[in-house]
Amino acid sequence: MDTEARRALEAEYASLRRFAAVVGSADTDPDDLVHDAFVRVLKRGIDRIDDLHAYLRRTVLNIAANDRRRHARRRRAMARTHVEEGVAAAYFSDAADLLRLPPEVRAVLWLAEVERWPYADIGLLLGCTEEAARARASRGRRQLRLELAGEA
User: Fold this and answer.
1) Which among 1, 102, 115, 132 counts the fewest CB atoms within 10 Å?
2) How far, CA to CA in Å, does 150 sit from each of 92, 143, 146?
């Protein structure tokens, strides 16, 4: 890997890892998601990617969705065989509340609220319109409010 590509990936790492921690399931290590995304970038060729920042986030989101489906299949299989799974990692309550949301909603809320992305850019990343990204964020906030109000 050339020096320029290495610097580009290093510049994305910290922010991408935080994003992966939010959109990934509790069973998935954020570093694994980032690693898999970097592998896909390198296989494709970093010079063939127009917007590395957006490409990496979309890739992490896709990998996280695949992992969730794989974990769900495993849980169903384990339930059929009556074998208990290990206890999921304990997260502080705010993260646990956020993890109840679907991954694309978590992604929108993270990008809008934490990374302060404009909704137009979020829509481009997720392959939807700006209005759809705003709607997902609104639904996510509403769901969080309802769940938190129910716990009070």
Assistant:
1) 1
2) 18, 11, 6
Same domain flag for 53 and 71: yes
Helix or strand holding residue 20 (H, E): helix 3-23
Please tell me whether residue 97 adopts helix, strand or coil conformation: helix
Give the tens place of pLDDT for each residue, 52-61.
999 999 999 9
**What mean pLDDT value characterizes the chain?**
83
From 89, 114, 133, the end of a domain falls on 89
How many domains in the chain?
A: 2
Q: Average pLDDT in the 17-38 region?
A: 90
**Using CB atoms within 10 A of its CB, is residue 3 exposed (0-12), middle (13-18) or buried (19+)?**
exposed
110 and 123 in one domain? yes
Structure tokens of 51?
């917007």
Q: pLDDT value at position 87?
A: 43
Provide the residue range defining the domain that includes 33: 1-89
